[in-house]
Amino acid sequence: MKKIIYFIWRGCRLVIIKSLDKYYQLSFHLQLYLIGVEHGTHTRTYNACPALLISRFAKKVKFGDHVTFNNYFNTSWYTKCKIVVKPNAELTIGNYSGMNGSLIYCCNSISIGEHVDIGGGTRIYDTNFHSLNYLERRNTKTDGRNASSKPIIIEDDVFIGTNCIIGKGITIGARSVIAAGSVVVKNVPADEIWGGNPAKFIKKINENN
Ligand SMILES: CC(C)(COP(=O)(O)OP(=O)(O)OC[C@H]1O[C@@H](n2cnc3c(N)ncnc32)[C@H](O)[C@@H]1OP(=O)(O)O)[C@@H](O)C(=O)NCCC(=O)NCCS
Predict the structure, then answer these.
(1) Which of 7, 74, 97, 206 is the most exposed place for a label (fewest CB within 10 A)?
(2) Does residue 130 have an active-site annotation?
(3) How far is the CA of 95 from the centre of ligand 1 (A)?
């Protein structure tokens, strides 16, 4: 009896998951269309629709082919992807890149290359959010505008581990790896592993890694 109930439950669950998936894809693509986000083929979301807070006055927002947004997955089962693009800001995500319950907060410019893997709970933001001057911080209307912001570039084939913070003005060179839980505040050259807070050089990547 238990076995039969189990299989019925599994079947119902599968039907519900498939229906929800269809709803998420539809809702996601409708939002992309309404906001006017340029995107390639097979751009996809899993498990939920990412929070898309993209200004109609953004300079450019482009997702390539096969870009994936995983929500509530593995290490980020408690969180979903959130993409914020402010007026005049520019965000591009290259082909075959994907993220897992991550936040991208773009006030200036963020460029993510192709085949970039972004681990669960990672935060990428090109701004300090607040002014460093306490008097400016008191004015909640203008504070954000006075915050320092600089472009971020993440080159092709970079792997960013879970729960990292990538700060403003950072370039991460092609094929490099950022260790889990790192706070990246200095540029990372290509083909290196960096980690820690603040992230420091760990080792070169070579064919034996
Ligand atoms: C960085 C990483 C790739 C290194 O893997 P590895 O090549 O097998 O390296 P090792 O485990 O042998 O560690 C190499 C060195 O890096 C250090 N290191 C490893 N992980 C680190 C971390 N998260 N932060 C800081 N230093 C780290 C180790 O202490 C070691 O230092 P040592 O040489 O002084 O002893 C791996 O630790 C990691 O963080 N993977 C990310 C996993 C992840 O988040 N996946 C995403 C899931 S959504």
Answers:
(1) 206
(2) yes
(3) 26
